[in-house]
Amino acid sequence: MAPMGIRLSPLGVAVFCLLGVGVIYHLYAGVISSRLAAFRTRGKVDLRELLAVSLEAAVLGGTEVKKVREENGLKEKSKGKTKEGANELLTMGDLQSHRKMFNLISNAFPEVTVNSEEHDNTVDKAAAWSRDIPTDIRDKIEGGKYVPADSITVWIDPLDATQEYTENLVKYVTTMVCVAVDGKPVIGVIHQPFTGFTAWAFVGQGSNMRPRPSYTVSPPKAIVSRSHSGTVKSYVQEAFGNSTTIIEAGGAGYKVLSLLEMPSSETGSMDQADVYIHVTFIKKWDICAGAALLKALGGHMTTLKGEDIDYSGTPVNKGGLVASVGVDHKALLERLPNWDPEKH
């Protein structure tokens, strides 16, 4: 009951209550909105943010790779042999880069599966994403590209072309990150530690790369692995003729970049190829980033039989590969002789 002599106006009480509700809403609307947004995106990952983290991780790993090489602190050892009998080398550059890249991505997105070429038990909880989204990514890619975290597989190669790294053939060396969604390559980052250049692409969204204006396929310039060039040379010549130019190079990342138009500042040291061919087993952390770059630019990376490669599950691709952009990929495949990498 109101004090004696004072009558409360129903209208006044209603207005007062409405004002109170308005003040409370104004004060807490941001909190409520953010919690609703968090609820809606729980268990999901914004792919633009994951692209930014991938780029930052590749550059961070590249810094370690360059530092170890320049200090001549490689401490190389063999991890074993490949199916073809070549030594698989491990250096401090590989390990230090792995620690930076793996921990940065895992800390930023702990719910995402990250597969690395290297394995190490060092946990660095202090490795934190800067939350920076580079301007070229911000300009080309809209935020809010959410996918379920459990649909994502991240493949990282902390140091591609380790053999060449130990020989100081550093132009072939890259660090790479790839994001696959439901086994399909969606984001690719290839960083060159010794030039500082980074190529990136987000399939269906944008890239800082593009194909060259023209390619030749009669015959093409084919880029192949220098570690077992004899086998693949005869295969390529059988497909395209003895006059085919064959470029021997290290690193799957480098070979993919050789198919693309590089910035003028980088072209001096880069080979230019029309097709990339590999006829033996190869790991997915070696090829996934390149597959995403090519796919984003309208190109293809398939097995020798023309099958798409599934970038989930086992790390080994047993079907060899053919990679191209700006040419008729199917026509290239039709010229290839029958070959089963599992039998060679």
From TrEMBL:
<keyword id="KW-0460">Magnesium</keyword>
<keyword id="KW-1133">Transmembrane helix</keyword>
<dbReference type="GO" id="GO:0008254">
    <property type="term" value="F:3'-nucleotidase activity"/>
</dbReference>
<dbReference type="GO" id="GO:0046854">
    <property type="term" value="P:phosphatidylinositol phosphate biosynthetic process"/>
</dbReference>
<keyword id="KW-0378">Hydrolase</keyword>
<comment type="similarity">
    <text>Belongs to the inositol monophosphatase superfamily.</text>
</comment>
<protein>
    <recommendedName>
        <fullName>inositol-phosphate phosphatase</fullName>
        <ecNumber>3.1.3.25</ecNumber>
    </recommendedName>
</protein>
<dbReference type="Pfam" id="PF00459">
    <property type="entry name" value="Inositol_P"/>
</dbReference>
<feature type="binding site">
    <location>
        <position position="117"/>
    </location>
    <ligand>
        <name>Mg(2+)</name>
    </ligand>
</feature>
<dbReference type="GO" id="GO:0046872">
    <property type="term" value="F:metal ion binding"/>
</dbReference>
<dbReference type="InterPro" id="IPR000760">
    <property type="entry name" value="Inositol_monophosphatase-like"/>
</dbReference>
<feature type="binding site">
    <location>
        <position position="286"/>
    </location>
    <ligand>
        <name>Mg(2+)</name>
    </ligand>
</feature>
<keyword id="KW-0812">Transmembrane</keyword>
<feature type="binding site">
    <location>
        <position position="157"/>
    </location>
    <ligand>
        <name>Mg(2+)</name>
    </ligand>
</feature>
<dbReference type="InterPro" id="IPR050725">
    <property type="entry name" value="CysQ/Inositol_MonoPase"/>
</dbReference>
<keyword id="KW-0479">Metal-binding</keyword>
<feature type="binding site">
    <location>
        <position position="160"/>
    </location>
    <ligand>
        <name>Mg(2+)</name>
    </ligand>
</feature>
<feature type="binding site">
    <location>
        <position position="159"/>
    </location>
    <ligand>
        <name>Mg(2+)</name>
    </ligand>
</feature>
<comment type="pathway">
    <text>Polyol metabolism; myo-inositol biosynthesis; myo-inositol from D-glucose 6-phosphate: step 2/2.</text>
</comment>
<dbReference type="GO" id="GO:0005794">
    <property type="term" value="C:Golgi apparatus"/>
</dbReference>
<dbReference type="InterPro" id="IPR020550">
    <property type="entry name" value="Inositol_monophosphatase_CS"/>
</dbReference>
<keyword id="KW-0472">Membrane</keyword>
<dbReference type="GO" id="GO:0052834">
    <property type="term" value="F:inositol monophosphate phosphatase activity"/>
</dbReference>
<dbReference type="GO" id="GO:0016020">
    <property type="term" value="C:membrane"/>
</dbReference>
